[in-house]
Write a structure and sequence with these properties.
Elements lengths: L5 E5 L4 H12 L3 E6 L9 E5 L7 H8 L3 E4 L3 H11 L8 E4 L5 H9 L6 E6 L11 E6 L4 H12 L3 E4 L2 H28 L4 H5 L4 H14 L3 H9 L4 H20 L3 H16 L4 H13 L8 H36 L6 H16 L5 H23 L6 H4 L1 H7 L4
Parallel strand pairs: 1-2, 1-4, 2-3, 4-5, 5-6, 7-8
Antiparallel strand pairs: 6-7
Amino acid sequence: MTAPAFALVIGANGSIGGLLARQLAASGFEVVGLDLAATAPQPGIVTLQGDATRPDAALQRRLAQTDVLVLALAQHVLERALPALLPALPAQALIVETLSIKTPFAQWLARHPVAQPVLGINPMFSGDLEPAGRPLAAVPYRDAASADAFVALLRQWRLEVVPLTPAAHDQAMALLQTVGHAAVLSFGRVLAASAVPLDALLRLAPPPFRVLLSLVARMTQNHPDVYWEIQADNPCSAVARQQLLAALAALDDGVARADQGGFAAALAALEHTLIADHRDYVGLSRRIFESINPPPAPDSLPAFRAAIDRVDDQLIDLLGQRQALIADVARFKKTSGTPVMQPNRVLEVVQRCKARGQGWHLRGELIEQLYRLIIEEACHIEYEHVGGPRESLLTSSAPAFQATGVQA
C-alpha cells in the first residue's frame, strides 16, 4: 500500500483490534483507534472514544479520510455499525473485518449495498502474541487490488496467510475451533461440578490434565462473545458438536460392552490416520509435557546422561522438522524462480539465533559454527530440488557470515 495511508480501527481495545492497530502504525499508516470505552494511549495511534453504530461528526470526518477501515467487532455489532459508517466512507476504501465466522456475513453482504471492497481475516492466535510465523485465514469477498495489497502487507508481517472461501473457512473452523473449545469447556465444567477440590487434584495432576486446565484458563481470559460466535454462528458448528457427542457416546458404549479390542483398534486407527504422517507431534507432546512437569534434577552420572539423551532426542527431532521445512522451501523456490542463495536471510537467521542464545549463555561462536553447518546442509537440500549451477555458501554469503563474525 502507498504510504502515507490512513487506517481507522474500530474495536481498538480488543485483542485483535489492538494488534492490527499496532501493526498498521508500525507499517507507516496513520492510525486512529476507536472504541466505546476509553482507549489507552499507544505510540503512533490516535485514540478516540465513540459509538460506531452512531458516528458523530468527528468520526465521520475521520471516515472520509480512511483508506483501510478495520472492524474488530462482534457480528451483531458489525451489522449495525456498517450501514451507519458507509455513507461517510470513500468508495475505494478497503473494509477489513475480523469475524470468527464468515458465511453469515457473506450472506449479509449479498443482501446489502456495499460498494467498497471487503476482506475478511481471522488471526488464529490471540492478539497479545507476536504475529510472526502464526497462521491467519484470509477471505476476500470480492476481488480488489486493495484487498490483495492488504494480504501482501500481512505477509510482510511474517504471518502465514491461508486464503479461503467463506464456506471453506467455516468448515475448517468447526474442526479447528468448535470441537476443541467445546471439549475444553466440557472438561472445565466437569471439574467445576466435582466435589474433589482442584488443589487436591493438582497435587497428582499428569501433564494432559494440566494442559487442559491451562486451556480452560486461557479461555476464561478472553471475551465470551468470541467463543459464543464460534459455537452459535458457524453453520457447521452444530454438526461438529454432534460428532463430538457421538464420539463420546461410542466410547461410553464400548466401555459398557467391555470392548477392549475395539478401544485398541480405535487408537490404532487414530495413529494411522492422524499421526503416521505427522510424527513431529509425538516429540511436541513430549516437550510440552516436560515443560509442564520437568523431571527432577539428576543426582547421578547415569541420570545426567539420560537427561542429556532426552535433550539430544529433541534436537534430532527438531533438526528433522527443519529439514522437512527446507524441502518445502526448495519446492517453492523452484516454482517461483527464487535463487537458493539468500545472503541477507543467512545474516538474519544467524543474528536472531545468536540473540536467542544469549538467554541461555551460549557463546556466539558456537551458534555461528552450528548454523553454518545447518545452512550449508539446507542449501544442499535446496539444490537437490532446484537443480542448476551451485553457488558456494562461503562465496555467496561471505559478507553475511563476516558480519556475524564467522570466518568464510
